[in-house]
Write a structure and sequence with these properties.
Elements (H helix, E strand, L loop, with lengths): L3 E6 L6 H13 L4 E8 L15 E5 L3 H13 L3 H13 L4 H16 L2 H12 L4 E4 L2 H10 L5 E6 L7 H11 L4 E4 L2 H10 L6 E4 L18 E5 L8 H13 L5 E5 L5 H10 L6 E5 L3 H8 L2 E6 L8 H8 L4 E4 L3 H6 L6 E4 L4 H12 L2 H15 L4 H13 L4
Parallel strand pairs: 1-2, 1-4, 2-3, 4-5, 5-6, 6-7, 8-9, 8-11, 9-10, 11-12, 12-13
Amino acid sequence: MKKKLEILVYHLGYGGIEKAVSSLVEVLKNDYEISILSFYRLYNQPVFVIDSNIPIRYLYETDVPLKVKKYNQLIKKKQIGKLLQVLWNDYGKGFHFLTFFHDLFYSIQIYFLKGRFRRLKRHLKKSDAHIFLSTRQEISSYLVKYGNKSSLKIGWEHNHHHGDERYKQAVIQGSEHLDYLVVVSRMLTKDYQRALSLSRCRPVYIPNMIDNDLSFVSDYKEPRILMVGRLEAEKGLFDAIDVAKRMQERMVKFHLDIVGDGPLRADLEKIIFEKNLGDYVTIHGFQNHDYIEQLYRHASLYLMTSFTESFGLVLVEAMNAGIPCLAFSSAEGACELIQDDYNGYLIHERDIQQMTQQIISLLGDYEKLKVLGKNAKMYSKNFLPYSIRVMWKQMIDGGNS
């Protein structure tokens, strides 16, 4: 009989954690009887495909968290006029006043009275899972208190603490009574191993995986630069636009393709227009994997301008298409994946001029692109599903050294 593995998540919407959950379910579904507990149902279906045979239970059948996040972003930006307009569109225009009070009740219950954790507590006390996998440190704290005492309890830490001691301590305290803490960064694994050395918890390095091994590599025939990800402040996308402007001023032939959506899209499109970069930069919005694959086929470089990055799966995906990668060293995850002059380059101190010069140099050196791309493709094979599946099974079933 297969062991029951239950994965505990906040939601199954857009995000790196949610993508990682989808990939993990796919590689482990034949080894364990998997189920998913999600706090919120944000959409009718999970954003990332999950086998229809995998049961998913939601603690709340509501999209309130999406709305609250949207309102919070406007409040942080002090865009009160826009906030009122959004509230009017969501509730006032259709005279949905009962819906407003219904959502307000849920917001208070979920966020202020922590109703979500009370429901989680009740669920954990009833669950007969042999293995629990918690994707958030807050969930882990409840798991160790109320989960079946004989079950294997695993935490999965995707985020880098970036020197935030308060966040780091929260992870440590939430993990002390787990059996394992899976960490996607080698450096962070060593950090947590030291911090948890006197506890029962054993931090284990298991990186995120790419879904498959692409059958092609880029042809490097076009001077196209690719970026994929959420359009939000931490991704440093205004620096990417700055790089593009400098290249345009030097009359370099190139095109920057940005795939993704998010709160900064309108601001980015505005600055692209103001800097007369419409012929050089395209924002494609959120796109499926097939669409992105077509961009991989013709991209010569992958660019990451993130201020911080815990892992950087997009880099591995680009490498699997044979695309050399460039990133600022402030993105900690990139520092573990990019090896200078092997599969790309790291630019230190967020030096935009150096980044610009490195891109120009590589776009003008076809042979160098081929060598870096070949190495990138080879390196990416370390993150294929088979290799990562073995690491998870060794940990869950015992014998991980």
